[in-house]
């Protein structure tokens, strides 16, 4: 037994930003150091991602976490007690072996991700370093402050499918610091709110804090975004650019893409042309899940046609899985990966996916889920790994703002020189 041996594990039910129950884990080490983590939850999910263990039944819409908590207090605690908290890969391998399923369905991805991250936090606490610097020190990475990717309008599964596209976002690669990027985004966010209010179309905010999308077409949302950027005193495509998450798996049924808002269906080719048109019309530099996870041919076609000028991010198709990253890279689909720790269920799984993407020269984007909490681990993860971008949702609601604010604190320590800015976006993508 050393100071860093895991000696205690507490699991409790807490609540996420949608008011749903989730799992919090607190791990204690022999030295007295502790680490705490909360599992987030997605709404638009890839079919191969780690699944949350939920109780089912009528209570709490079936979303109770008593079974996951029982697993944590029983088998997970028994497995982790006596292990070295610094040896994250051994801890995660033990969790994976205990679960024994490809999607963590026995122990629950919500249980494994909270346990894995709590161990990481405890190891950082034991080293008397903030998580970002502990990560950089143990992984040998150069920490940097990521470019924030911030939602202005939320749609898709996060807004009652009021518009088809899930995330209409801005990035400020022309900013000289994370702090400046947030300030510019704040102006755009509030300009967008004022435009909607003036049109009598304010409807509150969607799940991730973006304005509720009361639009007649998807293009109207795009045009209003351009209007908001302009109203904020910026020239679209100069220091501010657009980023989208189409979340196309949500639109894909029986081999076609159904755009509910505009009541039309598109084939894969039609969807490629539709989005390709937007790429010529608007200053879009990044597009996530343009085609569905099951439509690999579509993802390949889209990446082949547009991948030299736009970042094509795989979320549902890659589910933070190193093998899928390599497979899709070989096929020619995507050129960037979204990293969500709970999609794979362990810190080590997320690191493997990150490293696989880096080795391919791909872009790397650490992301929150639509169901979030006050947990700010991803701000540290993105900084410690030196990821290109951080995607957290919008510029409202404290489960989102907590993560942006944590990056401000980290930037204060690292200095604005550590801000990634436009660096990860190839010059051909961003002409500003
Ligand atoms: C996504 C995320 C965050 P969810 O699709 O990228 O926007 O959504 O957590 O619902 O999967
Ligand atoms: Mg997505």
Structure characterization notes:
The protein folds into two domains: 6-128, Enolase-like, N-terminal domain (Enolase-like, domain 1); 147-418, TIM Barrel (Alpha-Beta Barrel), CATH 3.20.20. By secondary structure, it is α/β, with parallel strands linked by helices. The model has no long low-confidence stretch (mean pLDDT 96). It contains 13 helices and 14 strands. 39% of the residues lie in helices and 17% in strands. Bound molecules: 2-phosphoglyceric acid and magnesium ion. 2-phosphoglyceric acid is lined by residues 42-45, 166-167, 208, 245, 247, 315, 367, 369-370. Magnesium ion binds next to loops.
Main features:
432 residues, alpha/beta, Enolase-like, domain 1, TIM Barrel, 2 domains, 8-stranded mixed beta barrel, 3-stranded antiparallel sheet, 14 strands, 39% helix, 17% strand, globular, binds 2-phosphoglyceric acid, binds magnesium ion
- Give me the CATH fold name of the largest domain: TIM Barrel
Rg, alpha carbons? 21 Å
Count of distinct structural domains: 2
CATH architecture of the largest domain: Alpha-Beta Barrel
Instruction: Report the CATH superfamily of the largest domain.
Output: Enolase-like C-terminal domain
Number of helices, counting only DSSP H or I runs of 4 residues or more: 13
Overall number of strands:
14
Broad CATH class of the largest domain? Alpha Beta
**Which small compounds were modeled alongside the protein?**
2-phosphoglyceric acid, magnesium ion
Structural class: alpha/beta
- In order across it, which strands form the biggest sheet? 4-5-6-10-11-12-13-14
């Amino acid at each position: 037994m050393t100071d860093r041996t895991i000696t205690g594990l507490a699991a409790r039910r807490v609540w996420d930003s949608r008011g749903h129950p989730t799992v919090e884990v607190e791990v204690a080490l022999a030295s007295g150091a502790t680490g705490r983590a909360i599992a987030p939850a997605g709404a638009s999910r890839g079919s191969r991602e780690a699944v949350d263990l939920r109780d089912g039944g009528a209570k709490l819409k079936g979303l109770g976490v008593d079974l996951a908590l029982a697993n944590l207090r029983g088998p997970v605690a028994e497995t982790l007690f006596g292990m070295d908290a610094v040896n994250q890969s051994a801890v995660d391998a033990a969790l994976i072996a205990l679960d024994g399923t490809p999607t963590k369905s026995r122990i629950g991805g919500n249980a494994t991700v909270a346990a894995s991250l709590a161990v990481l936090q405890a190891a950082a606490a034991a080293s008397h370093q903030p998580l970002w610097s502990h990560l950089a020190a143990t992984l040998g990475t150069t920490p940097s402050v990521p470019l924030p990717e911030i939602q202005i309008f939320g749609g898709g599964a996060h807004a009652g499918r009021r518009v088809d596209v899930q995330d209409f976002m801005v990035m400020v690669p022309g900013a000289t610091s994370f702090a400046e990027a947030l300030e510019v985004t704040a102006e755009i966010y509030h300009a967008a709110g004022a435009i909607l209010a003036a049109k009598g179309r304010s409807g509150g905010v969607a799940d991730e804090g973006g304005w509720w999308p009361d639009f007649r077409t998807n293009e109207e949302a795009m045009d209003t975004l351009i209007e908001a950027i302009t109203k904020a005193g910026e020239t679209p495509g100069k220091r501010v650019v657009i980023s989208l998450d189409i979340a196309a798996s949500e639109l894909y049924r029986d081999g076609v893409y159904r755009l509910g808002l505009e009541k039309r269906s598109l084939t894969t080719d039609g969807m490629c042309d539709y989005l390709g048109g937007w790429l010529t019309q608007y200053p879009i530099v990044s597009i996530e899940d343009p085609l569905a996870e099951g439509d690999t041919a579509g993802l390949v076609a889209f990446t082949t046609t547009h991948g030299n000028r736009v970042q094509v991010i795989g979320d549902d198709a890659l589910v933070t899985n190193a093998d899928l990253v390599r497979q899709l890279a070989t096929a020619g689909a995507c050129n960037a990966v979204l990293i969500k720790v709970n999609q794979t269920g362990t810190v080590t799984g997320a690191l493997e996916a990150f490293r696989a993407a880096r080795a391919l020269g791909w872009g790397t984007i650490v992301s929150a889920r639509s169901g979030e909490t006050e947990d700010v681990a991803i701000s540290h993860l993105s900084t410690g790994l030196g990821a290109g971008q951080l995607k957290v949702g919008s510029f409202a609601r404290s489960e989102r703002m907590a993560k942006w604010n944590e990056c401000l604190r980290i930037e204060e320590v690292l200095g604005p020189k550590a801000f990634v800015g436009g660096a990860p976006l190839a010059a051909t993508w961003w002409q500003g």
